[in-house]
Design goal:
The protein is of the alpha+beta class. It has six helices and 21 strands. A hairpin with a 5-residue loop joins strand 16 and strand 17. The structure holds heme C (HEC).
């Protein structure tokens, strides 16, 4: 049986530790006081919600923990925060929240949400001292959370077919087709996925299929959504059921990772000239992995949609992508040794690829499933130097970001990109989908979360002088 969701194990752990924490509270306070000194980094003598805690929550938590946000409880009001003070102190101290699995000491990225040690201590002290409210006038303003788009009003909006999630269902992983037709070929600067029901839409990795107008009659033909968890179809069979091939059976062009979504991560809108897409008159967004979380006691109907922002000019430097590992794009960066993970073992694998030209990396996306334990990737330059890319000391299946560097990272020709992963197929792994553990492998082309994958996806541009100084921050 699939275990329902990580949240349960996290919560269970939080509760056990919390009850033992209560008895330690006076000690914690004492040590916090002893360490306080008189500079701005010191912990205030009295920690209150309005003055000290709200700024931390509003800056790092409420983007998800708010009414209509993707987390299942809110941290917006004093009452909300007070009720969850103990759990919040615990999950922040354990660095489970805010969710940011990448080690900030290895490399840092745009949009990184990581609390300082001081902020963690403030949350801890606040809960230990009974979570006082503080003076109303100190309360900062809650940030405005845009509705319908993270950017602005889109030029076009395409509905994803509504999907009904039955009450009490476990996680679902869908392969979804979102067809579109335009009056003419055109360009877009950004394509954005907006979840309908934030609390159940967990993540999306979406590609775009572009048809030669004459080769495809009806882009709407075929099924709209396949459940990849219950469905045993391999990818090619699934593609046929969705009606993706051209009329003559050949395959159209597919561009990877055009529209991704993960709560709290905004669609990437690079500076002028970088990125952007060509849209053909007939096309399909193929949401590879529309991950719906578990539902509670009621049915939920989700109507998500895709926003398109047109551009008058063709992309000057279209973003390219390659991937190492399972189904690697060159076929010559396989997972080594084979991804076959015996029960009750911890297994280490790697994949590597030597870049034939200078490239500038924009984003990296490590990918594993439920047995993932840790992940690390770096490049080895021909002179032996190491360029750090990303390190995830504690793998979290639920939070697989496309990490965007603040400025592009130049990887010189002849460098070898190395990705290393560790899998834990023991019962100590709380996310192990099987109890007792079973043999798990990368079932070539299977996307089931209970099969494994090892992938490292890199988006890049051919290098141009000065790239390492170009900011990738959102315009
Ligand atoms: C990017 C979205 C996001 C951000 C930012 C975020 N959380 Fe969460 N949080 C979640 C989700 C979703 C869950 C449910 C468990 C999961 O999926 O990991 C959760 C779970 C929790 C839990 C576990 C409680 C339970 O009942 O399961 C606590 C406590 C918590 N968050 C506190 C915080 C605090 C405090 C912050 C800020 C310092 C924060 N979170 C930031 C999305 C977020």
């Amino acid at each position: 049986m699939m275990r329902k969701n990580k949240a349960h194990s996290l919560l269970r752990k939080a509760r056990t530790v919390l009850s033992s924490l209560r008895s330690l509270a006076p000690l914690v306070v004492l040590s916090a006081l002893l360490h306080s000194c008189k500079n701005k980094d010191s912990i205030p003598e009295t920690v209150t919600f309005t003055e000290h805690v709200a700024p931390i929550l509003f800056g790092n938590c409420t983007i998800c923990h708010r009414p209509g946000g993707n987390a299942h409880f809110s941290l917006v009001t004093y009452e909300d925060a007070r009720k969850n003070a103990g759990a919040s102190a615990f999950v922040t101290k354990e660095r489970m929240m805010p969710p940011w699995p990448a080690d900030p000491h290895y490399t840092s990225f745009i949009g990184q949400r990581v609390l300082s040690d001081r902020e963690i201590k403030i949350l801890e002290k606040w809960q230990a001292e009974g979570a006082p409210q503080g003076p109303a006038e100190k309360l900062p303003k809650l940030p405005a959370y845009p509705d319908g788009s993270d950017v602005r009003t889109p030029d076009m909006r395409i509905a994803v077919s509504p999907y009904l999630l039955k009450a009490n269902s476990s996680d679902q992983f869908l392969l979804v087709k979102v067809p579109f037709q335009l009056p003419q070929d055109t360009f877009a600067s950004l394509i954005e996925f907006i979840p309908g029901r934030h609390n159940v839409v967990h993540h999306v990795n979406g590609d775009m299929i572009s048809y030669d107008y004459d080769k495809k009659g009806d882009v709407n033909a075929g099924e709209r959504a396949l459940d990849m968890q219950n469905d045993t179809s391999k990818l090619l069979e699934a593609y046929r059921r969705l009606g993706l091939p051209n009329d003559d059976g050949s395959y159209p062009v597919l561009q990877k990772s055009v529209v991704n979504y993960l709560p709290g991560a905004m669609g990437q809108n690079y500076s002028d000239g970088i990125g952007g897409y060509k849209l053909t008159r007939k096309g399909v967004f193929l949401l590879n992995d529309l991950h719906y979380g578990f539902t509670k006691s009621e049915d939920i109907s989700d109507s998500s949609y895709i926003n398109i922002f047109f551009s008058k000019t063709p992309p000057k430097r279209p973003v390219q992508e390659f991937q190492l590992g399972t189904l690697s794009s060159f076929g010559n960066a396989p997972v080594l040794p084979d991804l076959i993970i015996q029960p009750n073992t911890v297994k280490q694998v790697y994949s590597k690829y030597t870049v034939p030209d200078d490239i500038s990396i924009l984003t990296v996306n490590p990918h594993m499933h439920l047995l993932g334990k840790s992940f690390k990737a770096y490049a080895l330059k021909p002179n032996g130097d190491t360029i750090r890319l990303v390190s995830i000391p504690r793998w979290d299946f639920n939070w697989q970001y496309f990490y965007t560097f603040k400025t592009m990272v130049k990887i010189p020709k002849g460098s070898t990109i190395v990705a290393e992963g560790v899998y834990d197929n023991t019962k100590q792994n709380l996310n192990n989908p099987f109890s007792p553990p079973r043999l798990v492998r990368d079932n070539n082309g299977s996307m089931k979360a209970t099969d494994e994958m090892f992938q490292f996806i890199v988006t890049y541009l051919p290098y141009q002088p000065g790239d390492e100084h170009v900011s990738l921050e959102r315009k």
